[in-house]
């Protein structure tokens, strides 16, 4: 990181969508191999990548595979051979690639993927739910949620930096809410190439490179006397990602790009003096922030914690932060049928994070905005009212479905 | 708290998808020069790749970031300062893909908001098509035929920038003409387009529409079921088979009218409709067989009556009809209702003949693309010659404009 950064360089503002921002990040990261297979909302990324390639702005192998499974297998192999890779999918397309998704972290492949969050079939629906990306949460994938196009671009660059760090070498999926983020264009600052080059070193696979000069066999069959030790590798890599590599990457990002994200793992909004907070991921931050500003004017001290990194999960940091409040409401844009308290995934993780903590505020769960249904400002106010009641000692149900016709 | 502006662009998929995007992008980029911030997006639930289907794009602009967030916190705007219809047949109301009910074109307009329509008609004819609204609004007309500008196989006709010029006139608080000029230079690098925007600014005509004016029809709408009212397992009941119909004069029953989806009718996709001369019909069945939407009812006397609750206006019936001038496609704006032509003919044949002769004078100004090859290019040249698109007589170049913004997105 000793490179001199050309300070005279300026960022250029462009009116682009979250999907275009991811494609621009691929260009800036000078990705070598990109595979594609269409499914909405991810397919907008492949369209923009194809355009960049056709316009001669991005020099990469661009392969449209015959299915998502092949799409992820191709980049897995290319990455093993030393290529910086990108791919992505949505909903059931991501699920069709599942076998490839399971083998990728085990082989320590630093693939970066975009998941355009989409409801899982059936019924066929385009709208956002987080269950598609969450399906890989136990496998060694790093998972990060963003809430605007600028953050999508920046996080894609950070994802390469983190994933390709030799201490990590784990894949990273950037989850982008379908519609609200993937399909709306806003003003995005596009950094100059020099800054990106200073931030993102070349991908060096070292002794894991699949190359004739480095004779190795990858992915042999093993028995019970080998497997636990190999799983331990991924466990340690995930720990290093959380404790060292992600914080380092954000520090360097702030230094070079002059854009600060503060705590890398979650954003806090108006929490300083809050009595209660809501917690959620992705673009539902917009109605939540608008509602908070309304409620603040009425003297209701409510804040918001937007979780960015879901894997590695910032359990201790969240427990410490959430312990400051009298009650916590967790908004899940997902479901986990039959789970503890029939809750959403995020609420369950937050309850688990809080259990060993000294201060354990009551956690009120909400399931909301499934299939792309709008999370409205009145919805957020209703949820906040329940959390305030919990703070006042009135027990609330562990989970409530909000915005359903009943 | 700052001010929030919302603009919707109602267009026909697939032909006007790029046009609508260019307009909503242009609004955000122009407003930026006036110190505002904004976003541009299409209605995610639409399926704008479908031929002729109504679809929407939105531009949301605010005086500051926090106010913009209020606009971004919604799936789509609940009310608009300006609604734009880039095909006048959309003024009859729109039913987008997977959308329940017919939405009046002016439904989202705030009181005293402005509906901008590109049309060759005068305000009276346009107001007649638009549903009545509780509050008064303004109607701004820009002379033009339905544009395919920006669609990759068609020539640019400057409709995108002409709309921006009109917006600068009707709502200068949103964006100024100066900013429109700057944005056009940056985005399109075309001085001729700047000139077209300036002329549109001068020429757009505005009138006030009162709550008593417009189409009195109550648009159809539906109540969506509660979760416990829906059948489990994603099972939905099929449409019943259909039944015989009755002759309005003899009361004889017979024939067959298929039952149709009561919640999704599709007919707002139509920009033209078939008019049938039953006196020359030879009952060959071809229109009935070939109609992709099964829109023809079989009458008790063996004729085929295009049902206007089901016709999407594709024109296949006219193409396959073996009898000269028996089926003629007519511009949708020439009709006030969806009444049965066969019933009208049965009741009074000479009157029907007169009605038919009058209707078939209204040829479609623009069909869905495949109708007459080269028609569009000729129309654009003619519009410049006629001074409708005023470029000072200078011909619009062959330059094809597609996704200008995307091309530059890579920086």
Automatic annotation (TrEMBL), chain B:
Pfam families: Fer4_21 (PF14697). SUPFAM superfamilies: 4Fe-4S ferredoxins. Gene3D superfamilies: 3.30.70.20, Pyruvate-ferredoxin oxidoreductase, PFOR, domain III (3.40.920.10). PROSITE patterns: 4FE4S_FER_1 (PS00198), 4FE4S_FER_2 (PS51379). InterPro entries: 4Fe4S_Fe-S-bd, 4Fe4S_Fe_S_CS, Pyrv_flavodox_OxRed_cen. GO terms for molecular function: 4 iron, 4 sulfur cluster binding; metal ion binding; oxidoreductase activity. Keywords: 4Fe-4S, Iron, Iron-sulfur, Metal-binding, Oxidoreductase, Repeat. It comes from the Bacteria. Residues 272-301, 302-332 form the 4Fe-4S ferredoxin-type domain. The keyword Iron-sulfur applies. This is (4Fe-4S)-binding protein. It comes from Candidatus Segetimicrobium genomatis.
């Amino acid at each position: 990181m000793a490179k001199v950064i050309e300070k005279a360089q300026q960022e250029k503002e462009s009116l682009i969508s979250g999907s275009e921002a991811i494609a621009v990040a691929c260009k800036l990261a000078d990705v070598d191999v990109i595979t594609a297979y269409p499914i909405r909302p991810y397919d907008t990324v492949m369209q923009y990548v194809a355009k960049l390639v056709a316009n001669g702005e991005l020099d990469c192998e661009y392969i449209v595979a015959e299915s998502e499974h092949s799409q992820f297998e191709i980049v897995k192999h290319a990455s093993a051979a030393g290529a910086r890779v990108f791919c992505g999918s949505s909903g059931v397309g991501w699920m069709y690639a599942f076998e490839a998704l399971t083998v990728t972290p085990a082989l320590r492949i630093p693939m970066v993927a975009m998941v355009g969050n989409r409801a899982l079939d059936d019924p066929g629906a385009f709208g956002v739910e987080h269950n598609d990306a969450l399906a890989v949460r136990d496998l060694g994938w790093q998972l990060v949620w963003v809430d605007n196009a600028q953050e999508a671009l920046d996080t894609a660059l950070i994802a390469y930096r983190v994933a390709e760090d030799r201490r990590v070498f784990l894949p990273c999926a950037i989850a982008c809410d379908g519609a609200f983020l993937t399909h709306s264009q806003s003003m995005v600052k596009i950094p100059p190439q020099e800054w990106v080059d200073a931030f993102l070193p070349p991908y060096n696979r070292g002794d894991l490179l699949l190359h004739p000069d480095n004779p190795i066999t990858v992915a042999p069959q093993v028995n019970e006397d080998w497997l636990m030790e190999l799983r331990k590798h991924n466990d340690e890599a995930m720990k290093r990602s959380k404790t060292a590599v992600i914080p380092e990457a954000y520090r360097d990002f702030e230094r070079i790009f002059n854009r600060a994200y503060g705590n890398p793992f979650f954003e806090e909004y108006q929490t300083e003096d809050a009595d209660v907070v809501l917690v959620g991921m992705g673009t539902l931050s917009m109605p939540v922030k608008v509602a908070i500003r309304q409620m603040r004017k009425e003297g209701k001290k409510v804040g918001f914690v937007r979780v960015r990194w879901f894997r590695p999960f910032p359990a201790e940091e969240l427990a410490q932060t959430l312990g400051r409040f009298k009650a916590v409401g967790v908004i899940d844009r997902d479901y986990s049928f039959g789970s503890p308290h029939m809750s959403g995934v995020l609420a369950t993780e937050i309850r688990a994070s809080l259990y060993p903590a000294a201060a354990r505020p009551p956690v009120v769960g909400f399931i909301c905005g499934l299939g792309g249904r709008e999370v409205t400002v009145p919805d957020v106010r209703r949820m906040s009212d329940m959390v305030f009641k919990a703070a006042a000692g009135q027990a609330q149900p562990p989970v409530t479905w909000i915005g359903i016709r009943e | 708290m700052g001010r929030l502006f919302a603009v919707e662009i109602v267009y026909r998929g697939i032909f006007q998808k790029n046009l609508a995007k260019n307009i909503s992008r242009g609004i955000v980029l122009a407003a930026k020069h006036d110190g505002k911030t904004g976003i541009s997006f299409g209605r995610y639930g639409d399926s704008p790749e479908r031929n002729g289907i109504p679809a929407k794009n939105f531009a949301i602009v605010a005086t500051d970031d926090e106010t913009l967030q209020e606009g971004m916190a919604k799936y789509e705007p609940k009310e608009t300062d300006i609604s734009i219809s880039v095909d006048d047949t959309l003024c009859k109301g729109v039913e987008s893909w997977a959308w329940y009910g017919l939405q009046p074109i002016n439904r989202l307009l705030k009181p005293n908001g402005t509906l901008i329509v590109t049309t060759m008609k005068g305000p009276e004819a346009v107001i007649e098509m638009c549903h009545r609204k509780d509050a008064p609004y303004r109607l701004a007309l820009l002379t033009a035929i339905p544009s395919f500008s920006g669609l990759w196989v068609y020539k640019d006709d400057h409709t995108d920038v002409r709309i921006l010029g009109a917006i600068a006139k009707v709502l200068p608080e949103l964006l100024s003409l100066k900013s429109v000029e700057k944005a056009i230079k940056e985005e399109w690098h075309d001085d001729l387009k700047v000139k077209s925007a300036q002329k549109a600014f001068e020429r757009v005509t505005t009138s006030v529409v009162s709550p008593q004016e417009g189409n009195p029809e109550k648009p159809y709408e539906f109540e969506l079921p509660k979760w416990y009212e829906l059948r489990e397992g994603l099972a939905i009941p099929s449409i019943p088979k259909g039944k015989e119909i009755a002759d309005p004069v003899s009361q004889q029953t017979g024939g067959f009218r298929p039952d149709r989806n009561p919640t999704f009718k599709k007919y707002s996709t139509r920009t033209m409709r078939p008019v049938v001369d039953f006196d020359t019909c030879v009952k060959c069945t071809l229109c009935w067989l070939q109609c992709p939407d099964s829109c023809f009812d079989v009458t008790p006397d063996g004729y085929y009556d295009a049902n206007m609750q089901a016709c999407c206006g594709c024109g296949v019936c006219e193409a396959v009809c073996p009898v000269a001038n028996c089926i003629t496609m007519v511009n949708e704006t020439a009709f006030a209702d969806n009444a049965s032509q066969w019933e009208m003919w049965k009741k009074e044949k000479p009157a029907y003949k007169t009605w038919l002769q009058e209707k078939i004078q209204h040829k479609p100004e623009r069909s869905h693309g495949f109708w007459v090859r080269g028609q569009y290019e000729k129309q654009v040249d003619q519009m410049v010659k006629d001074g409708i698109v005023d470029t000072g007589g200078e011909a619009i170049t062959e330059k094809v404009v597609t996704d200008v913004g995307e091309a530059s997105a890579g920086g």
